[in-house]
Amino acid sequence: MNGKKISVISGHPYPQSFNSAIAQTVNLHDLYMEKFNPVISDKQLIS
C-alpha cells in the first residue's frame, strides 16, 4: 500500500450518531493482495 491519508470530518452533535460511529478504527483489506476468491466451493458450502 502507498500509505494514503484519509480525513473523516464529523459535525454531528450526538456522540451516539452514525456519523460519530464511522470515526472509529478502520481496517483495510486488500482483496487482491489476500488472493480472495469470491466463488464458494461445494466443500465450503456444505461445511
Task: Please give a structural write-up.
The chain is mainly alpha-helical and 47 residues long. It has one domain. It has helices at 18-21, 42-46. The radius of gyration is 18 Å and the shape is elongated.
Based on the model shown, name its key terms.
47 residues, mainly alpha, 2 helices, 19% helix
* Number of self-contained structural domains: 1
Roughly what is the average pLDDT, rounded to an integer?
Answer: 81
Helix content: 10-25%
Radius of gyration, in angstroms, nearest whole number: 18 Å
H/E series: HH
Structural class: mainly alpha
Terminus-to-terminus distance:
34 Å
Strand count, sense and barrel status of the largest sheet are: none
Compute the number of strand runs: 0
Number of helices: 2
In terms of DSSP E residues, the strand content is under 5%
Indicate the low-confidence ranges by residue numbers. Answer: none
Dominant shape = elongated
Per-chain topology:
Layout: H1 18-21, H2 42-46
What is the gist of this entry?
With 47 residues, the chain is an all-alpha fold. Helix content is 19%, strand content 0%.
